[in-house]
Amino acid sequence: MTNLDQKAFLARQPPFNRLAETELASLAGELRIGHFGSGEVLLKAGETPACLYFIIEGAVYEIDGDPDQPAQEGAKSLTAAKGAQSLWCVIALYGAEDIFDAGALLEGTGTHSFVVGKPTRCLQMPRPVFLQAVQNYPQLASFYNRKISQRLAALHETDDNRDLAAFTIAKIQDAYIHPPVFVSAQQSIYQAALTMKAHKTNSILVQYGDEIGIVTATDLREAAIIQRQSVDDPVGPLATYELISMEPDDFLFNALLRMTHYNVNRLVIRDVKTIHGILEQIDLLSYLSNHSHLIALQIDRARSQEDLKWASRDLVNVIRDLHDKGIKIRYIMQLVSELNKKLLRKLFALIAPPELLENACLLVLGSEGREEQVLKTDQDNALILRDGFSHPDLERITREFTESLLDFGYPRCPGNIMVSNPYWTKPMAAFKDELFQWIVHPTYDSFLQFAIFFDAMAVAGDDNLLRHVKDHMYRLLGDHRSFYSQFAKSTVAFETPLGFFTNFVVEKDRDELDIKKGGIFPIVHGIRSLALEYRLPQTNTVDRITALSQRNLFKPSFGIELIEVFTYLSTLRAEAGLRKIREGRTQDNYLNPKDLNKIQREVLRDSFKIVNEFKKFIGYHFKLSMIS
Question: Residue 33: pLDDT band by 50, 70, 90 thresholds?
Fold first, then answer.
């Protein structure tokens, strides 16, 4: 193998493929070729490795146990090694173009041993050369670091769109902030308009004693033209004094979320002592360059269900646009959630009469309630009615709501968890009775229903109704330890799709794995179970993990890894869904590992290992081994 061949081989191996030609050539010149026979021990646990191995051909086992035990003889063939597992456990199998053991080189000693499974040819990079390369190129260290959060950060850096992803960390202060313009509350509407014109601004801040309010050009026009107020009247009463504000070092993407949530076009940027100015929506959007605001505007201006349908159908384009620009799925979830809530609220207002809005609470359940929906999935919603209230048209209204969402592209829920089902539309007292049955006389189905309801979020109507029902739920639970354990049991219901040799386990008929069952659900439900036990108000999985970390339920570093793994698995699920939509196929929870590049596959393996670690934690915490 010539030096050029070695350079070409190295250039194919992430993250070395990110190095410059001269850097690759220099490292390739330090490589040497090694040939090893079956059963040969390349590294023992506790030893300091002499080099980094790049497998050209052959097979190497990573094992947990003493390779000098008789099982070493069994490692002379792939078949025999499987039979030797009772004496030492095979952790992983490495083949052509795999690399090991960078972690041991970085940490000084290895935690596992490496045994040759069949004749193997490797390129070897001496330890001093590798450590010097790590010192010179930090991206190597971040990629090979054993912490999944750092490996995911390195993976994100390798994305072709990483330059466009910069705005996910852009701060408000990076965008243009209009200098604040103040007027006294006693000044006239006419003087305020002149001040706006002189400063070429669409809004001014109004000083009224110790209070600060805001008046926009629209406010002035409506007062003078529509309300027929005298332009000599004071401007103070026109101002809004409950300012929606943010700090300059907050994220710009959060500003977009807040504008969407509160349906405003500008934010006051301030800190404890100073008002820095006004962030206008048009300036924010010119920085972010996406058209999600157009959907929000379409929803606000919709006068019919047909208007809403077009806004709904544009959502997938926004998701694709944001994802293509490198926005993390976590942030896309938040924005999509705000837009979905806005759409559902508007649809319900178009269909339901005012008296129903005043005496009911519309809920979103499941992934929508957790604000974790990206692409359109099954409808999951419910309606709590105030006790004693009834409406003669209720059946027609709820049926029309469900049918409209179906028309918008939201599929029916296979479990019929929709407002059109009377089971999920009933008075507050009936929901309380249902909770009693779910908690005191639990069944398999009732655990599922309880989990769905526990994630409920109010989107329209009187949200106090949901609060009263949840307060009743916690009173019923008390310190019901057996319920918590039985509820948490579903966390370990599905096998993680990682085989004996850390190969992916795919379904026989489709060469794909179910990433929701295998990875996302165990995290969601395990965290949900802990949130129930600790009575957390949050519904979002990431927010729940953060809150549990703050309570020292597990180490902050493990909490960070759980968040990163959950986000990564959700990202892969969304990407697979978008890919299937582009190809005209039905989106689902399956992905083919062959569609991933080598780095993505490695990180997916590591992610599933974290999922298994979390399952063990849940099993220990809730003592699942003691229940049937």
Answer: very high
- The predicted-structure confidence for 482-532, as pLDDT tens digits, reads as follows 899 999 999 999 998 887 556 788 877 778 899 999 999 999 999 999 999
What are the angstrom distances between the C-alpha of 558 and each of 146, 270, 445, 446, 564? 12, 34, 32, 31, 10
Asked if the model's pLDDT at residue 244 lies above 90, the reply is yes
d(CA 178, CA 14): 45
Phi, psi of 205 (to 5 degrees): -100, 135
**Which residue matches tokens 């599933």?**
608
Q: Is the pLDDT of residue 147 over 50?
A: yes
User: Which has the closest alpha carbon to 460: 356, 315, 536, 312?
Assistant: 356
Answer for the pair 153, 201: CB distance below 8 angstroms, yes or no: no
Average pLDDT over residues 303-311: 85
What average pLDDT does range 232-260 have in this prediction?
A: 90
Q: Which two tokens stand for residue 340?
A: 């979905």
CATH of the domain at 127: 2.60.120.10
80 alpha-carbon distance from chain centroid = 42
Distance CA(441)–CA(455), nearest Å, equals 20
Domain that includes residue 381, residue range: 292-478
CATH number of the domain bearing residue 279? 3.10.580.10
User: Is the distance from CB of 75 to CB of 117 less than 8 angstroms?
Assistant: yes
d(CA 576, CA 215): 46
Mapped onto helix, strand or coil, the DSSP state of residue 523 is: helix
Same domain, 8 and 135: yes
For residues 140 and 15, is the Cβ–Cβ distance under 8 A?
yes
Which of the pair, 109 or 509, is modelled with greater confidence?
109
Residue 131 and residue 208 in one domain: no
When pLDDT is averaged across residues 185-205 and rounded to a whole number, the result is 92
Residue finishing a domain among 267, 288, 309: 288
**Count: domains in the chain:** 4
In whole numbers, what is the pLDDT of the chain averaged over residues?
86
Say yes or no: 282 and 301 in one domain: no
* Residues 541 and 571 placed together within one structural domain of the fold: yes
Question: Are residues 235 and 362 both part of a single domain?
Answer: no
Residue 161 placed within a domain: no
Task: Using the predicted structure, report yes or no on whether residue 238 has a pLDDT greater than 60.
Answer: yes
Task: Output the pLDDT for position 160.
Answer: 42
Does 163 fall in a domain?
no
460 with 500, same domain: the answer is no
At residue 345, the pLDDT reads 93
- CA-nearest of 328, 332, 294 to 314 is 294
Kind of pairing, strands 381-385 and 425-427?
A: parallel
Please give the model's pTM, rounded to 2 decimal places: 0.69
Amino acid type, 343: L
User: Considering the domain boundaries, does residue 463 fall inside one?
Assistant: yes
pLDDT at 145: 60
Q: Which residue is associated with the tokens 């790049």? A: 54
Cα dist from 348 to 283, 377, 389, 575, whole Å: 32, 19, 18, 31
Structure tokens that stand for 524 in this block: 């969601």
Distance separating alpha carbons of residues 93 and 27, to the nearest angstrom: 26
Residues sharing a CB contact under 8 Å with residue 79, sequence separation 6 or more, in sequence order: none
For 269-420, where are the alpha helices, taking DSSP H only?
A: 281-288, 292-301, 305-313, 315-324, 329-351, 354-358, 366-369, 394-407
**d(C-alpha 102, C-alpha 140), whole Å:** 9
- State residue 24's pLDDT score: 87
pLDDT of residue 185: 94
Instruction: Compute the C-alpha angle 512/515/516, nearest 5°.
Output: 135
Beta bridge partners of 94: 60
